[in-house]
Specification:
Order of helices and strands: EHEHEEHEHHEHEEHEEEHEEHEHH
Largest sheet: 8 strands, mixed
Helix content: 25-40%
Radius of gyration: 20 Å
CATH topology: Rossmann fold
Shape: globular
CATH architecture: 3-Layer(aba) Sandwich
Structural class: alpha/beta
Strand content: 15-25%
CATH class: Alpha Beta
Length: 347
């Protein structure tokens, strides 16, 4: 099968690309390689996949490492470019991980999120309509749970109160996907990711920020005085979960009734899953383990809750477990692997 993987230079996309290529899939990677965080890290991920040059928009480049991998630099907002790519390549499956990330950033720059995450996702949906695919898998987020305080977060719960533009854009993606599944029969699956971490991670995420600051002897910002919990999910578990979902496109639920409905499924070929570790970790315990791995104490800058943030995340993954998903890596092992990578990468 031929797979279009958007966000291939990103953290999750890079790991997924590597996994799929080793499994024998043909993959076309797609990424804007923007400057939301240091582009050199994105290019170095691509270098690991055998892409060794800074490509121009719209130019497909062949990997020197994987014969079945090509990469194109393009923005999700490029409607004509995306249509042309779909027409030429004839994809079987699309995994759309490309998006403008960041909760805090979305509060300051909301227009960016509408362009990339909403208009850009519409371009993907339209391309899947015109050039039909067997399955569209796309990244949602645990952020959609917003003001919901009932733990664990379950896909049967309503998510009508987002508290950041990023969360609102991801909720919009789920609604848009259902519309296209209903109108055009496109099988779509949304994955609500929970605090993904690991080697090659994003520099704006907690583990990266904390590790870097502790090594450099700088203080770390700890919001809500550290009274927070996160369902930290290791990257290899996420990748295995995506692969599992990718090969299980949703079917219409013939028994679905609107008045008593499971809101994560539909009479259309549509599905929503949480993908997390199902084991929340106290933020202070997470920081203590980073200290243990580095052999160095952190200087804590305790701060109040920041806008758009939530007290805790905790994923109910039971629906995904029915497909065979089971996370394997606990946070101590995960932190060990990240610190090992960080010390090697920045040696």
């Amino acid at each position: 099968m031929k797979i279009l993987l958007t966000g291939a230079a990103g953290f999750i996309g890079f790991h997924l690309a590597e996994y799929l290529l080793k499994e024998g899939y043909e993959v076309v990677g797609f990424d804007a390689v923007n400057d939301y965080y240091e582009p050199v890290l994105k290019w170095n991920r691509l270098k690991e996949l055998g892409i060794i040059e800074n490509t121009f928009d719209g130019e497909l480049v062949q990997s020197i490492k994987y014969p079945s991998f090509r990469f194109i630099r393009m923005q999700l907002e490029n409607e004509a470019g995306i249509m042309s790519l779909f027409e030429k390549e004839g994809f079987d499956i699309v995994v759309n991980l490309a998006a403008q990330a960041g909760v805090g950033h979305s509060i300051r720059f909301p227009h960016t999120y509408v362009k990339s995450n909403i208009t850009g996702f519409l371009n993907i949906l339209e391309a899947c309509r015109v050039f039909p695919v067997k399955h569209l898998v796309y990244a949602s987020s645990s952020s959609v749970y917003g003001l919901n305080a009932l733990l664990p977060f379950s896909t049967v719960q309503r998510v009508d109160h987002p508290i950041s533009m990023y969360a609102a854009s991801k909720k919009s993606n789920e609604l848009m996907a259902h519309t296209y599944s209903h109108l055009f029969g496109i099988p779509t699956t949304g994955l609500r990711f929970f605090s993904v971490y690991g080697p090659w991670g994003r520099p704006d995420m907690a583990l990266f920020l904390f590790t870097e600051a502790i090594i450099k002897g700088k203080s770390i910002d700890v919001f809500n005085n550290g009274n927070m919990e996160r369902d930290f999910t290791y990257i290899s578990d996420i990748v295995e979960g995506i692969n599992l979902v990718m090969n299980n496109p949703p079917q219409p639920d013939k028994n679905w009734k609107a008045e008593s409905a499971d809101i994560a499924s539909s009479s259309a070929p549509y599905r929503i899953f949480n993908i997390g570790n199902n084991q929340p970790v106290k933020l202070m315990s997470f920081i203590e383990e980073i200290e243990n791995q580095l052999g160095k104490k952190a200087s804590l800058n305790l701060l109040p809750m920041q806008p758009g943030d939530v007290l805790a995340t905790f994923s109910d993954i039971s629906p995904l477990q029915k497909l065979g998903f089971q996370p394997k890596i606990d946070y101590k092992k995960g932190i060990f692997e990240f610190v090992k990578w960080y010390n090697s990468y920045y040696k």
